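Incident log, support desk, overnight shift.

02:14 A customer reports that sequence design results differ from what the structure should imply. Their input is reproduced verbatim below. On-call engineer (initials T.W.) acknowledged and began investigating.
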């Protein structure tokens, strides 16, 4: 089974072309540079080189495997990057710290392409600082040759028969929130008793897990067969299933999260106009659809969906385009919940160092 569109090698070739520059930009050239910080493999193969060719802006891409690295980069030097991808919770946090530039929405005329239900969210009322990029949920990916789930439940990740072949994401917020969800509690609980119960569940998983891994490592481990079951973002799961026909995915019946990744501009960007031009470019139906078709992640671009630009198989995938019925949205941290969760995660780190691969 092939990937949704393109091949990984094409991404490498595409990015290499950026360094060489391009002279085919048309009369709409603006020049200058654009520095972008994004998750690894989170654009289509030619997204950046096509933008550079059209507008004459030289693009430089750095990638991260933990979004706290993105937050840290903005905090340490708000002029280092011009466009960064952040979750809703971090958008709220960075905006509160006055580390994001306020968007000039007149420079983003394609914003109406976005489905209204993804706009004006709690983390950024009025979209003053962010534009939705992708959305999705987290679920369980498993290898049908080795795992036999009795139902759609998070408990598969605690199956003793899979010991050493299970992975959890290296995101403390996701691990804590989804463990709470698996116990029937709110994704964003602040109840000390519920948090302690979640801590105990994760600590008890210690003999089973191969590690707290970044999503690309989990994705590739599932494709190769090194991992047999894992917690994984739906888009990465869709990618993996397109590469390995033995893989399957479900959103557990206990429920899961609903997240939106967003494009933001750090406060001291050296090319804010170019950054807004890039964000608007991403919102073109064909550009945004190509990103969805390549990465496996859902996009909030209603125009792209109405024009049937998304691969039919991808649209039908629970991993990529899940039903919102049993999903709970993340809410920004307040000081109290942040303190409680940090304490809970510290307890896990003290007691639950992960084992290596068997």
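02:41 Re-run completed on a clean worker. Output:
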């Amino acid at each position: 089974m092939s990937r949704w569109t393109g091949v990984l090698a094409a991404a490498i070739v595409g990015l290499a072309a950026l360094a060489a520059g391009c002279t085919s930009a048309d009369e709409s050239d603006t020049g200058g540079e654009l520095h972008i910080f994004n998750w690894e493999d989170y654009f289509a193969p030619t997204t950046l080189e096509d933008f550079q060719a059209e507008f004459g802006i030289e693009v430089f891409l750095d990638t991260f495997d933990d979004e706290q690295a993105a937050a840290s980069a903005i905090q340490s030097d708000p002029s280092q990057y011009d466009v960064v991808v952040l979750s809703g919770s971090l958008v709220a946090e960075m905006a509160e710290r006055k580390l994001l530039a306020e968007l000039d929405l007149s420079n983003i005329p394609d914003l109406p392409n976005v489905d209204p239900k993804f706009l004006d969210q709690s983390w950024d009322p009025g979209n003053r600082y962010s534009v939705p990029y992708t959305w999705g949920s987290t679920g369980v990916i498993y290898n049908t040759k080795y795992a036999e789930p009795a139902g759609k439940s998070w408990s598969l990740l605690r199956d003793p028969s899979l010991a050493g072949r299970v992975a959890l994401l290296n995101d403390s917020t996701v691990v804590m929130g989804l463990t709470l969800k698996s116990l029937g509690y709110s994704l964003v609980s602040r109840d000390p008793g519920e948090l302690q119960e979640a801590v105990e569940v994760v600590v008890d998983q210690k003999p089973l897990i191969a590690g707290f891994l970044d999503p690309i490592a989990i994705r590739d481990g599932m494709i190769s067969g090194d991992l047999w079951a894992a917690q994984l973002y739906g888009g990465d799961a869709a990618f993996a299933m397109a590469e390995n026909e033995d893989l399957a995915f479900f959103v557990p019946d206990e429920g899961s999260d609903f997240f939106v990744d967003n494009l933001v501009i750090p406060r001291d960007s050296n090319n804010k106009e170019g950054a807004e031009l890039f964000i608007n470019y991403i919102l073109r139906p064909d550009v945004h659809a190509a990103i969805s078709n390549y990465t496996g992640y859902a996009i909030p671009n209603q125009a792209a969906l109405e024009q049937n630009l998304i691969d039919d198989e991808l649209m039908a995938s629970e991993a990529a385009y899940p039903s919102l019925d049993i999903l709970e949205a993340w809410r920004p941290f307040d000081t109290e919940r942040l303190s409680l969760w940090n304490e809970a995660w510290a307890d896990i780190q003290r007691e639950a160092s992960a084992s290596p691969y068997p």
